[in-house]
Task: structure prediction
Amino acid sequence: MPTLALHGHFYQPPREDPFTGEMPAEPLAAPYHDFNAKITAESYRPIAEHGYFERMSYNVGPTLIAWLARHAPDVYQRIVESDRRHSEAIGVGNALAQPAHHTILPLARQRDKETQVHWGIASFRHRFGRQPRGMWLPEMAVDLNTLEVLSAEGLSFTILSDQQVRGDLRAGSGPYRVRLPRGGYFAVFVRDRLLSDAIAFNLPNLDDARAWAAEALSGRQERLTLIAIDGETFGHHFPQGVNFLGRLLNGERSPYRVQALNDYMRRHPPTIEVEINERTAWSCWHTVARWDAGCSCTTGAAVWKPALRSALDLLADEVDAIYLHETRRLIEQPWQLIDNSIDVVLGLTDLRTLVDEHAQRDLKTGYAQRIGHLVKAQLHRQRMFTSCGWFFDDLDRFEPRYVIANAARAIQLCRQATGVDLGPDFRETLLAARSAVSGVTGADLYDEIVARAERAAVQASDANR
Result:
């Protein structure tokens, strides 16, 4: 009997204003306040209430699951409990981890890869109470160095698409072994791109889910077939998607068995070795240029993309230099402090306590506050590289505004800590990023964001008088 694994990638970026921490209203999400609330109602809640999380393989991005914990705690609890119940029934959970901010890891510097993966694992342990075995890579973007980072953090496998690997794929969706440059292997499952895309883009035109899957899997014998798609396909992208998902996962009297990836990996360790096509992704299978120089994966002029990335890379260098300069005599391991700062985000400790634990001597309040500001600046510096900032075809959209807003917040925190203003130089570099549609530049967006933040600060001050 063929085996089917259905993996849902559930993710939303942190849409909160980085200056106020509040979620702005999103008119396109009406009648809901914002898209997180809209997608929760259409997708996350019904999937959770029907118990479908327990019957699939899934990952929920750290920023999304944090929002659910605050704003939809019943949905959050059902998701977390689904992994526990699966573990009790099968002996292993069915949830996977994800890096913290959906950064395109092959484009990230080494230190950022390590931080993103470390934060993602820490978030997973906090939510699910166990060490993850597998990790979803943002956009499935991969290179060998990224796999080595995952391996070094104790992870065992990830998911790729069939156009990202080469070699003997007679074992269907795997798992397969990939040889790492520094020795050892890392496992990859290979999704069936055609079947996955059939659901992702053509779900309303498919027959009954179970009949469709039975026909698609006919003749595959004992091999695993992996369908991996955005979880929002079910309910948000297609209103009938939740019912489709339920029929697909219902294994009663089905001509195929349904199995989660963690369980399949445990029972079928990889033996066949394949190679990966480095610097590829599931939505940019020939390169990762969609998030850098631009490529044919998106229409329209992409000249703004490398300009925006270059501006943020330069700013990241400056933010890092300030942080290392200010901590050099006070913090023995400054990057370990950044890695551990995820505990502050998760509410496990406060920033002052964390700084004091890493300091080589007792710090006066002023010094501790300065370092605390720079640690928070590092959080927003990481969020500057959220993948959605480059995903679409135009600069004059919400997503590029989001990454620039986090840059502006990092600049503000550095200025508050040290008096050094990185803003003018950053704004100058943003002039090269221009929308081919509206003519708006990155500098215009930066000015807009800074002005809005200043107005909000004045309003907050007036309200507190």
